[in-house]
Specification:
Blueprint lengths: L10 H22 L4 H27 L13 H5 L10 E5 L8 E8 L6 E6 L7
Antiparallel strand pairs: 1-2, 2-3
């Protein structure tokens, strides 16, 4: 008895699989760049909190003498923002919040480019004398 064994895929099956994978990849690539406003707001809130924590950590290190002699002072929101690491700064709008903050503090604002909310945080400043 002579039986014919089929091995592999036919050309039509291979083209269908490649086409389906191409469509799925195209959909996945176009959706990864879009962030919902709620997700943008969550990211902005997290980054704002990280900026406050980074400035506080920097001040404590300064007071403990753990920074080099020519360290940067945190006297404005740009300097506080620059303490952040691994944040794509272009994804956010940064600014100085309104009103008069208490002495030794700044009001800084953060908003994600695709978010709907601007977050204002209070950041402690650091001067050359660590005061």
């Amino acid at each position: 008895m002579n039986t014919k064994k089929c091995r592999g895929f036919s050309l039509v099956e291979a083209i269908v699989v490649i086409t389906v994978l191409g469509v799925l990849a195209g959909v996945a690539i176009t959706n990864t760049g879009n962030v919902s406003p709620a997700a943008g707001d969550s990211v902005a809130n997290s980054v704002a909190g990280a900026m406050v924590a980074a400035a506080a950590n920097y001040r404590v290190r300064c007071e403990m003498g753990d920074l080099p002699v020519n360290f940067a002072t945190v006297t404005n929101c740009t300097a506080a923002r620059d303490l952040l690491q691994n944040v794509t700064l272009n994804d956010f709008t940064w600014g100085t919040g309104g009103g008069a903050p208490p002495t030794g503090y700044l009001y800084c604002t953060v908003r994600h480019s695709q978010g709907a909310t601007t977050y204002t945080v209070t950041v402690r400043t650091t001067t050359a004398s660590c005061g």
